[in-house]
Every structure is written in C-alpha cells, then in structure tokens.
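Annotators were shown the component list below and the corresponding predicted structure, then asked to write short factual statements about the assembly.
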Amino acid sequence: MEEVDAQDIHQLRKCTIRSTGEKKKVCKYSLQPKAESLTTVREFIRTTLKPFDSIRPHVHEIVFATHEACKNAVEHNPESEDPVDIVCEVFEDSVIVQVSDRGKGFNPKNIPKRIPDPTALEGRGIFLMHAMMDAIETKTGNNGTTVRMQKRIRDS
Amino acid sequence: MELEMTTRDVGDHTLIKLKGEIDIYTAPSLREAIVESIERGRYKVVIDLDDVEFLDSTGLGVLVGGLKKVNQHDGEMGIICNQEKLLRVFKITGLTKIFKMYKSADEL
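Structure shown to annotators:
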C-alpha cells in the first residue's frame, strides 16, 4: 500500500509531536461509525481527562479536536462499519490523542491550504483542530487514516 | 444527546434558544428551525448559544447557511454567546465579523 504522509499539508503550525514526561494514563475507545455516536467519544475524552486539574482549562480544545477528527472519519467513510479507534494518552505535560479509521484514506491535495472564507459552508474543521492543538500528524492511505494530536499542558 | 430548541418572537426578531450540543447529528434540526422562521416571514433570526455545551464545524456551517438565507430577504443573523470556549471558535474562523454578535436578548 502506498502511504502518503500528509504532514506537509498542515502548514498552520510546526507539527512535530515530541516525546513528553511520565505517562500517567492510557484509555482506549472504539467508536461506532455513526453521526449519532460522536457524543460518546466527546464523553470518553471528558471522562478520561477529568481527574487532572492541570488539564481542565484545555479539555474543551482536546474534546473539540478529537470530535472533528472522528467526524471526518465517520463522514468520509459512509459505507464503513468498522469502528474508529481512539487512544487518549495523558502525560505529565501533555495529552496525545490518536484517531484511526479503516476507511479509504484521502488525497492530502484536497485539503485547502487556507482557512475558508467566513461565508463558506464547510472546511473549517481541520483549521480549528490546528488552532486547538499544538501538533498534529496525519498519515493516510488506502487502508485508513490515522491522526495523532498533541496538546501541551503549560500550567501544570 | 439532545438539542433542545425554543423559538419565540421578540419584537421583529425571532430568538431561537438552544440547549445541549450542536454537532453533525443535531445540526439538521437547527437548520430546520431557521428555515421555519424564514417561512413564517421572520428574517431577523438570533441564535442564543449560552446553554450550548458544544458546537462543531458542522454547526458553524449551518449558522453560515442560515445567514445566507436571511440575507436573501435583507434579514439578519445574530448570535448570543458569552462562553469564551465557543466564542473562540467564531473568532478563529472570522465569523464574529459576519454575524451580529449580541450579549443578551435584552439588546433585541
């Protein structure tokens, strides 16, 4: 399978996920690929992060970015019945969320390079994900797409 | 998850108050509520987001679609939003410039 590294499409930020302090918690979730199920992945992230006071100011950003990644996985693979796999890792100074689907992948060239005009009806999700997170790495191919996103926790 | 909607007319504005989460699953019902307002000849629509926990990019698209529809009738699309986490989403995407942003329904 030809794997396309889509990292270069994300030009809003430097997108390197750096290894980070002690790992405190890892939780995994298997999401049913349906629009009505996305509320459950938001709840999964909220519940996973709840014990950590230092993360509280960033919970909405992490929930939002995870939701948008899962929404893309569900929306762009409408025939798929395979679950979307989410891994949420909590480190001392960051949170890393990985979202993997087994869909048909996408062509990175189809991702717009600039934030859409305010009057556009769609295309905002990926830019908002970048605005909410510190680093995003995407790999896509015809066996699926994996998005890894990191939020650094500064005030811990 | 549910999205509760309460519509009422305030002067020449129609206020749609939302409670819950707006995402790809619930956004179509918001689109319908906006369309129903327009069908009643009410082209000044204000969406109250103060009790909304979550708003995704699909929800933003529905609000922009509503704006385009009311603009065809020289109407107005207003947003009431006092939650910083949601306001940020509007600011990042430049949407505070195209919606009329209100602090509360008292301003209508």
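Statements collected:
1. Confidence is low (pLDDT under 50) at residues 1-13 of chain A.
2. Helices of chain A lie at 38-49, 59-75, 125-132.
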